[in-house]
Amino acid sequence: MNDGWLIVVIAFGIGLALGSVACALAVTLAWRQVKGKIQTAEARWRALIEHDNDMIAILNERGIITYFSPSTTRIMGYEPDNMLGVNWQSFVHPEDVERVTRLLEPLFSVAATVNKRVIGIEARIRHKDGGWRLIEATFTNLLFEPTVRGVVI
Description:
The protein is α+β, with helices and mostly antiparallel strands. It contains 4 helices and 5 strands. Strand 1 (57-59) and strand 2 (65-68) form a beta hairpin. The chain is elongated and about 95 Å long. The termini are far apart.
């Protein structure tokens, strides 16, 4: 191999190496930007949920509470973590349970039709102080949504 070809091969190799480094640097910078945007979006969502005046809950297909928003403490007196694993009916006034259960039956199905996916109800729920609060709630079937897998209140 003559010296001219050796220089070409070395220059080509250096070019490939520099291109790879530049590509890796560009990917790293792009990932940092995306990661920053994700963190900002998560922080924004968390702030909205934590300071909202409405409670948000998720019930699994058996009606068990799997999530309660932090506003639960301010509105109902309960710590959200203490409510996880509890059936929603245990918080509903005994005189309202049968009616609310009947209204919600269509929602607790992955195959719920579009017309039955959202239901509004009014019921009394128990406050931690033992009293009852009249609430209006919208229940939305998101059992089919992989990121939720529940009925959202």
